[in-house]
Amino acid sequence: MNNNTTCLTNFYPINLEFDEYTILQIPSKEGLLRELRDKHNSTHSFFKHGDFIYASNKEGEDLDFGGKIVTLSTIGDEKITSSLIKHIFFRTFKDRFQTIVPTQFYPFRIISRNRGDDIIYNALPKPLQGHIAFKKQIDLHLRLIDIKGKPTFGFVISIDRKWIFKIDCEVLQIEGFDLIGREVLHSVELPGLSGILAPDQSFLGIIKEVQKSEAIVDTNEGDQRIPLNELFIRKTTRNMKDYLTFKLGENESKKIFKIISAKKE
Prior knowledge:
Elements: E1 11-13, E2 20-27, H1 32-40, E3 44-49, E4 52-57, E5 68-73, H2 78-96, E6 108-111, E7 132-147, E8 150-165, H3 169-175, E9 183-188, E10 200-211, E11 214-219, E12 222-227, E13 231-233, H4 237-248, H5 250-264
Antiparallel strand pairs: 1-8, 2-4, 2-5, 3-4, 6-7, 7-8, 9-10, 9-13, 10-11, 11-12
Helix pairs in contact: 4-5
């Protein structure tokens, strides 16, 4: 191989200068993990593995959670080490970049705030700019790989472009957009994580009926009545195209999708 060749990779190794570490281990019981997170999430990280909950204090005093301090191996106990790295990274990121709210804990996910990374920004009228976007999404996956015979933790960074749609179904209903038959996401604020992690948006089902400020949604668990302001249409090509056509007309909608297609080529 030519020594002048530059090797580019999206794997960023983590240098752990120790083979063992100590951590608080707590016997697990039903509901305890959520209770601990609700009460002490601002100062501690908690995660479960097997029959135990593990606690790490990034700040604040050591508290008596009814457990014991154990010594673990970075590689021999790699699953616990992995969870610890994820939590420490998340908290460190939030301390350093306090105005950035990740959209997902793991894989760790953020959306670019750079307006230049929204390729349809200038194609949208001002009232829609920032509410609808097609922007860079950055994901970080933690991996344990072999480097020169040594197991090494590191983050794999991937970048893609995704639709951003911040208009809830209550607004869409007021605008007159047809919601019947639309796949929707349910947006729920996670307890104790307001301003720390974006609300969880998970696929719920298909809207069957709208009654005033609520929707009847066909879900895997039967019909559910959900407030419209907690629902967002799923960011499928069909939904995005239908809404843009509804707001801007077919010609303008096609122009926006041509911009996206050209960027993918």
